[in-house]
Design brief:
With about 290 residues, the protein is an alpha/beta fold. The protein has two domains: about 1-160, Rossmann fold (3-Layer(aba) Sandwich); about 165-285, N-(1-d-carboxylethyl)-l-norvaline Dehydrogenase, domain 2 (Orthogonal Bundle). Helices cover about 45% and strands about 15% of the residues. It contains eleven helices and eight strands. It has helices spanning about 10-20, 70-80, 100-110, 125-130, 140-150, 165-185, 190-210, 220-230, 235-245, 255-270, 275-285, and strands at about 1-5, 25-30, 45-50, 60-65, 85-90, 115-120, 135-140, 155-160. It is globular and about 55 Å long.
């Protein structure tokens, strides 16, 4: 299978590596021609790095792996090269300015697309690239799940039809991981950390359920699995970003949790869900 991957950061590059190992020919689009180099991991020969999006126009499927803050802009740049490919969204987050999920941006920018899925689960890019076992929820149409499972055959895939649930889990875990990182330093004790963690995740669930998500999705790999990984480890950019904020430092790299927290609060306001803990934590972090 010929796979086009849009975005060559750590996660995009890791997905390119495991897709190539799984037997696909991969075209990895990078806006500047660069990609993430993982220590002691060679790029498979069946990966091409390109800067011209026209190079992915004839691929069988697209995996979109750009940061949420650039998702709409990148998608608009890719539209003229779209030829009916199955799309797998591998970006976790919500657009800060609108609170829109990535599937909603696709619906707005590519209204004729009906065959797409959302990949979300406990995945540190370096471990995935190294071949360390992990899994993911793949939510979407039956055909998108079939195609995505073939491409990502090196992952354990849990299929789901709950796209909005998978997305809200991805957004929510980023925000809650940021909060947990902050509270690992700022909270007065372990009890307070556990309380805020639980209340914040409950608010994420309330938003999701109001948007039509299934409760069981929050117990899947995209839910509790990803939350456990991201909200308990300093390897998580969001957890580390929260720690930096608590220390009065500037977080390094892209910290999706900052945008996710803002997006969740905006979404909650639109649909009439109260989020006092998320709002209070945003204020405490000065975001």
């Amino acid at each position: 299978m010929n796979v086009g991957i849009i975005g060559a950061g750590a996660w995009g590059t890791a997905l390119a590596i495991i897709s190539a190992r799984g037997g696909s020919n991969v075209t990895l689009w990078s806006y500047d021609g660069e990609y993430k180099h993982f220590d002691n991991i060679d790029m498979p020969e069946n990966i091409r790095i390109v800067r011209d999006m026209n190079e992915i126009s004839e691929c069988d499927a697209w995996l979109i792996v750009t940061p949420a803050s650039f998702f709409r802009e990148t998608l608009r740049g890719a539209i003229k090269f779209y030829n009916g490919q199955t799309i797998i969204v591998c970006t976790k987050g919500a657009e800060s300015a609108t609170g829109d999920f990535m599937s909603e941006i696709i619906a707005a920018e590519l209204p004729n697309v009906t065959d797409y899925g959302v990949l979300s689960g406990p995945q540190f890019a370096g471990e995935v690239a190294a071949g360390i076992p992990t899994g993911s929820t793949l939510a979407g149409t039956p055909h998108a799940i079939e195609i995505g499972s073939k491409i990502l055959n090196k992952l354990h895939i849990n299929p789901s039809d709950d796209v909005v649930g998978a997305e809200i889990c991805g957004v929510g875990k980023n925000a809650v991981a940021l909060i947990c990182g902050y509270n690992s330093i700022a909270a007065k004790g372990e009890n307070e950390r556990a309380m805020i963690f639980t209340l914040a995740w409950n608010e994420v669930m309330e938003i999701g359920i109001k948007c039509g998500a299934q409760v069981r999705t929050f117990l899947d790999l995209c839910g509790i699995g990803d939350l456990f990984l991201s909200a308990t480890s300093t390897t998580s950019r969001n957890f580390a970003g929260g720690m930096a904020i608590a220390r009065g430092e500037q977080p390094s790299g892209t910290v999706e949790g900052i945008f996710a927290l803002d997006g969740l609060i905006r979404r909650a306001e639109k649909i009439g869900v109260k989020t006092p803990v998320l709002i209070e934590m945003k204020q405490k972090m000065g975001l």
